[in-house]
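To fix ideas, we reproduce below a protein record of this kind.
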Amino acid sequence: MPERNGGNKFSRRELLSFFKPKNSKIDTVPEKNDAVDPWSLKISRRDFMTSAACGSLLSIADIPLAIGLMEIGIPQGNAGASEEDYNELFRNPAYGYLLTSIISPLIEESLCRAFPSETFAPKDNKMHWEVGAPASLAFMLMHNIDGAYLGVIPNSLSFEEIHVTSFISGLMYWKFEREGGLAKAAVAHGAHNATLFTLGLALIKS
């Protein structure tokens, strides 16, 4: 190995520097500890597609999971909306998609992911499940507030149905929020709801 004057050997990085072009960033190490802005609405095409696909797949997985939970005596459902409420949305699909796939995800992800992420989690790129798990539990309980889902003034907290699948999906949304901000979580949430709404429409029409 070449040596400096005085006999000290060159380091590997110093040797590479002799061969790299001037102003090259070949030895630049990207910063891996940058925190994502919890409220960021920027999203790449790749993240958009990945989040949407994961949200849709999770919604399909929710169905057998909910059925299995009901089989063992854990009632599933959404106390925030009655069957008539859903039928009203199905009668007006444009409004139904707008509410379930855009408005609700943005509001819920702001309250249950972006706000706690900014307020209670350290500003780094780690998951911090000690914040994400309680936030997901709060997200689950939101679906037990009578009237909350359709924007009606909440009037009671019901535990007749425990929306376990909301807790599970909330954990995924938390992961996406920590990785890519509000936009990434809201896209996954929106795709999840849109898939379920589409399945509901198909059942109504069949």
Notes: Residues 24-31 have pLDDT under 50 and may be disordered. The radius of gyration is 24 Å.
